[in-house]
Amino acid sequence: MLNRTLAPESKQVDEINFIEPLKQQLDNGIPVFTINAGKQELVRIEFIFENVNWDQSKPLQAVAVSHLINNGTAKLTAKDIAEKVDYYGAFLQTEYGADQSSVKVYTLNKHLAAVLPILRSILNESIFPQQELDIFIQNQKQSLQVSLQKNDFLARKHFAHAIFGDSTYGSNIAASDYDAIQQADLLSYFKAAYKPENCTIIVAGKFEDKEFNLLNDFLGKDWDNHEASVVNKFEFSEGTKGEVLIERPDAIQSAIRMGALAITRKHKDFPGFQVLNCLLGGYFGSRLMANIREDKGYTYGIGSAVVSLKDAGYFFIATEVGADVCSSALTEIEKEIELLRTETVTEEELNLVRNYMLGSMLGSLENAFSHADKFKNAYFSGLDYTYYDNYIETVKTITAEELKQLANQYLNPADFTKVVVGKK
Questions:
Q1: pTM of the predicted protein model
Q2: Which domain holds residue 405?
Q3: Is the Cβ–Cβ distance between 256 and 319 less than 8 Å?
Q4: With the CA atoms of 55, 58, 63 and 67 taken in that order, what torsion angle do they form, in degrees rounded to the nearest 10?
């Protein structure tokens, strides 16, 4: 008989296995990485393009192209595309990121031959109709106007601009930037970025020779976009330090965002820094949550994160607190950082974080799609699967003393940019 009064024994995850992709190439040179796994006749095909030709005077080119690329081609209207994709039970998604943009399709294998021509038209023949562009501009300006009333949005916006300046990572977008978008600029950017030489394809699901040959037939030949481009490359130095206060006298809550430039996934200390971050604010049982939410009751939620981009990494802490306790919250945040810098973590707390991180890693590998996402994170950082081997080993073996050393090296509030929007 199961004794339900006793908690089950807790054990550390012993082994995590990754599915490595098969690398192939289309006739036009596009690399294709395939995670062929799963029993369902379902496939996800992701076309990933490096962002190029950064122009500070036209900061929204890549964003607008990503949003509008499936809104009309030389042969298909936006309505045609939506109806055809829906008819075949497929799902089409576009995503813009700071370093790459993608066009992603989910489809049943039996409909792949019907869906790929739609993708071919989008990737070769998008025309960005003026009517669709006008609607996009109007909607985005309205959305920006609403967002500018939110303290957390302003804190995120000013923090990014403070540490990254007028780059794609931190561009200080205004309504006038949307008004400046021109159809001709979008067409030019589309031809420069969405081309075979700038494309990587990552496939996940049931994808074998028959499916690969279909992909090659439709996307491996006669791709006409070949305009010149320069892949974005940024260099950053220490930016604004100290406090940026944006007063809002009627604010009930104040948004806090603080942090600094940090290391990227390629740095040897990155896995250890992730363990340190988890302790501080990376999960619900973190020290910041225990102090600022559970003990003091200043907020519903607070967290921290280490972010790795192509050309920079950064660390940040973010929360919204009652305006009357904002100063106290800042003091408590710095107190928790100082404790990590001066005292060693107990083995009990460290083991809890180890189990959480390893369990989260294992839980994130639930299907072929998530395995493909793990490959993508490593690949676009210039890494291979040894990164994950090192990550897992670091989580299992890092010591309390090593964490204290990392805290002293990477968590110094004196070096932070601190943005407060509301009342301090």
A1: 0.93
A2: 242-422
A3: yes
A4: -140
